[in-house]
Every structure is written in structure tokens, then in C-alpha cells.
Amino acid sequence: MILTAMAAAFPLLPDPDQARDWAEQELGDPVYQAAEPNVVDRISQAIGKFLEDLLRVPDNDGWGPSALVVLGIIVVALIVVALLIWGRPRLSTRASEPARALFDDDDDGRSADDLRADATVAADRGEWDDAIVLRFRAFARGLTERGLVDPPPGATVRAFARETATALPALVPLLDPAATTFDDIRYLRRPGTRERYRQVADLDDAAVRARVVPVASR
């Protein structure tokens, strides 16, 4: 009654049936259909809601189980990254460290290869004292560069020999004669000879070829 009266009073107003038809035609326009979320939109919305629920802090001001899991994963990832950056093996870091002093006041910073080459030059000249000292230093420097022996700065020859015997038992027969020769030349000022140089050179050559014996098989 009211709608009919209004339609009579206002001829431009549609009746109920005509209004329903107009509404259905309008909503059927492709513009409205394009505005509806597609499959990708629905998936994105679902993922966003999942992450929001996962990280939502409960009303009791505590961390929920899901948030703790995420926090734990982040912590583990940071630890792994730190190990990859700073957790390099000990042997590789030793090789990059500056050469340390050996045998009391010995502060020679040359590498094992450099010392070995200089010892050969001295031996070719018949300078046996220098050749013996340089070759024994080359032997000691080579072991420290490989990380097989790690004596404190200024360790004595005997202390170095004891630590070497533990790391490389195969060198024990050669260690004592060569260490005695070095002490004689370096500290007692006894003359070197070709034979005594050969003792130290044989020890150095054996050390270069030696491999560490696992503790379980010693």
C-alpha cells in the first residue's frame, strides 16, 4: 500500500519488482565481478591471517607456543650464521697468525720454507753453524704452521722436542740428536759440521713427510 502510494506520488520511483530487476542487472555488471578477490588474493589473505595468528601475543601478556617456536628458529639461524663466519677450524686460523718467537730470544719471523731455503744457502757455503740453526728453526716453524705443535712463546728446544714426540712419535729417534746439536751450536758455541747438519736436515725432512697418528691407534 505504502510503496504503491509512493509510486503514484512519485512516478520516477520503480515498483518493488522493477527495483529488484534493476539491482540484479547492476550487480551482474563485469566491473563488480572484477572487484571481487580472485584465487591469488584469497591465498594471500589466508597466509597473512596465518602469520598474524602465529605471531599474535596472547591477552595474558605472555608468549604463545607458536611465537616461541618462531623465536627459537631465528636464534638457531643466527647461531648457524655466526659459526659460518667466525667458527673456522683452529688449524686454519693458526696458519694465518704471525710467527711467534721460539727458543728463548729467537724472534725470527720467517716462514718454514724461507728458513729452509736460507739454511740450504748457508750449507752450500759451508757455513754449518748458521745452516744448523736455520734448519732446526725451519723444522720447528713447520710444525707450528701446521698446528701440530703449539708451544708457549720462548719455549726451550727440549720442551719443544717433548711436545713434538707426543704429536709425532715416529720422529722420536731423530729428535734427541738434532736437539742436542742445536743446543751445542746455538748456546754452547760448539762448531757445526756437515754430519751434524745432516742430522737436523733428516729430522726436518721426516717432519715434513710425517702425519699425525690418531690417539686411539697410538
Task: Describe what you observe in this structure.
This protein has eleven helices and no strands. The radius of gyration is 42 Å and the shape is rod-shaped. The chain has helices at residues 2-9, 16-27, 30-35, 39-55, 65-86, 90-96, 112-124, 128-145, 157-167, 172-186, 194-209. The chain is 67% helix and 0% strand. The protein has two domains: 15-86, no CATH class; 98-217, Four Helix Bundle (Hemerythrin (Met), subunit A) (Up-down Bundle). By secondary structure, the chain is an all-alpha fold.
What features would you highlight for this structure?
rod-shaped, 218 residues, mainly alpha, 11 helices, Four Helix Bundle (Hemerythrin (Met), subunit A)
Tell me the number of strands: 0
CATH architecture annotation of the largest domain: Up-down Bundle
Choose one word for the global shape.
rod-shaped
Total number of domains? 2
Broad CATH class of the largest domain: Mainly Alpha
The tally of helices reads: 11
The residue ranges in which pLDDT falls below 50 over 5 or more consecutive positions are 89-99
Quick structural gist:
This protein has 218 residues and is an all-alpha fold. It has helices at residues 2-9, 16-27, 30-35, 39-55, 65-86, 90-96, 112-124, 128-145, 157-167, 172-186, 194-209.
